[in-house]
């Protein structure tokens, strides 16, 4: 689909016009490339707190990439970083970090798991301050910590929660480079479960995820599969798969090796059959809010050997202010966007249709977090999705099933193309990356949640919005 803004950027008159109206010029995001040998290629600078607990796991992951690893030679923890690198067969080079250094980097990674009180936060300043201008376009900043609600003391909890504010602010400072910043909180004892989360956020697959928090919990450890086909042999259900974000989800899961069961309503039959034929998937037609749908879905998945990945993407909008909204618009929105997911899941649980180690991914929305005029029904349904995911995480962990949610922001679709020009162009840039996302950005995150190595990633709600200025 066309982006008139990008067309203007390609000529002098257009650039002058856009500069005068104050719209920023975004740097194109680098997304997944099937020709890239592994998940990360580039120069990464690693820093660590005293008593950092994840250095060995960090180096183990970097060993599996094409990273060139560096560390600040003058820092107190240089010896610990070097020891971890050598123990994992990684060649790490010490560099003098100062503001006039000529070195540039593609990623900064800081292991802050050793912070025990707020005075330790000074270590963030000493690591990042000299090198912040040395991050390349499309770079990554990753800070590792512990979940603050499981801290040993109030002081440690404060220090760990501070990491979130720090990375969200860093994300806003580096967004003009199309670079991103995230925090990964790793529960004590879950160090070996970090692989999937770390590899995703440092890779190009997380291009439009920015200023977000991932939490990794203790779970069965699954060896990370082949980077380009992590879902090989898996069966995935995608509702609303005929077009838009749902189509991109189906295509991305199939690209990663999954066999996709695409579901949509009968009027979308033509599009659904076309998409499934192109990706080698299977077709299922039906209304997910009907009484028959849960049993029909469960039976079809059973025929396919059970479901490994369940993606609840189908949804509707029926927008009016609350005072003017017809009752049936309210009821329809809640039934399709929220209640249907619960009914389908309950049937799959009762029938044992979800395979061991399976995952459920629900599509929420930024408006479920922030609210929106004329969307009381839609926002309620999408906020309900978040509540359901967060509550069910502990329940499903007992069944060895993960559940997570994505909350898309401004994603370029036929729907956004219909927005009036100037409203659309301004809306695209109300985030740290100054551009709209693509359906594949949502799909990549869903594929990450469905990765069998994401066994410790559950109960997360991740915004795919370029760090939108709207919402939390």
Automatic annotation (TrEMBL):
<dbReference type="InterPro" id="IPR002347">
    <property type="entry name" value="SDR_fam"/>
</dbReference>
<comment type="similarity">
    <text>Belongs to the short-chain dehydrogenases/reductases (SDR) family.</text>
</comment>
<dbReference type="GO" id="GO:0016616">
    <property type="term" value="F:oxidoreductase activity, acting on the CH-OH group of donors, NAD or NADP as acceptor"/>
</dbReference>
<protein>
    <submittedName>
        <fullName>3-ketoacyl-(Acyl-carrier-protein) reductase</fullName>
    </submittedName>
</protein>
<feature type="domain" description="Ketoreductase">
    <location>
        <begin position="234"/>
        <end position="409"/>
    </location>
</feature>
<dbReference type="InterPro" id="IPR036291">
    <property type="entry name" value="NAD(P)-bd_dom_sf"/>
</dbReference>
<dbReference type="InterPro" id="IPR057326">
    <property type="entry name" value="KR_dom"/>
</dbReference>
<dbReference type="Pfam" id="PF13561">
    <property type="entry name" value="adh_short_C2"/>
</dbReference>
